[in-house]
Amino acid sequence: MIIPYVIGGIILFLFFTGIRLVRPNEKGAIERLGKYKGQAKDGFNWIIPIIDRIVKQEITERMMDVESFEAITKERLNTQIDLVVFYKVRDDEKSIYKSLYKVEDFEKQVVRIAQTTARNIIGKMSFERVNSERDNLNTELRKTLEKQSDSWGGEIVRVETKEITPPENVQESMNEVL
User: What is the pTM assigned to this prediction?
Assistant: First the structure.
């Protein structure tokens, strides 16, 4: 007599523990026993408890503050550079797969590439050009980062140079001229 209630309770328990919701600002990948099975749809999803899991990926645009770093200009001036990178993961299935399984830490990778690319670009420019042609610098950085992040399923929306600080002696000379 009690067996149908126990079986019914187990079925209800399994049903409710298998419910997963995917919000509109994220995408989900379904893994079955650790292997990629497919993409979860937005909203309500039901998975087999213990066997399946959903790994979620944020797809909204995000801002990443690249820690201040030093770059050497063409005339060998050590300048401090502060960058901000705006990025997002593309929402197609292939990009979601790449962002989850083809890169260990997307943000860390973008930060390192932004720093090395900026150093390379700035090394070919005079300080005056670096300071006056920020838009060109930002555009070139974005294009280079976009090529790299494409293999990780990401999209670089824009790159902004927050601050370019020359060495103190150059700053003092600039202040005296003004």
Answer: 0.78
What are the structure tokens assigned to 34, written together? 């650790």
Q: pLDDT tens digit string along 70-107?
A: 888 888 888 889 999 999 999 899 999 998 998 888 88
Quick count: other Cβ atoms within 10 Å of Cβ 7? 10
The closest of 145, 149, 170, 148 to 159, measured between CA atoms, is 145
Closest by alpha carbon to 154, among 91, 66, 111?
Answer: 91
For residue 45, the tally of other CB atoms under 10 A from its CB is: 16
Q: How far apart are CA 67 and CA 163, in angstroms?
A: 11
Q: From CA 133, how far away is CA 176, in angstroms rounded?
A: 23
Cβ-contact 22, 54 below 8 angstroms: yes
CB-based contacts of 63: which residues, under 8 Å, 6+ apart? 84, 85, 86
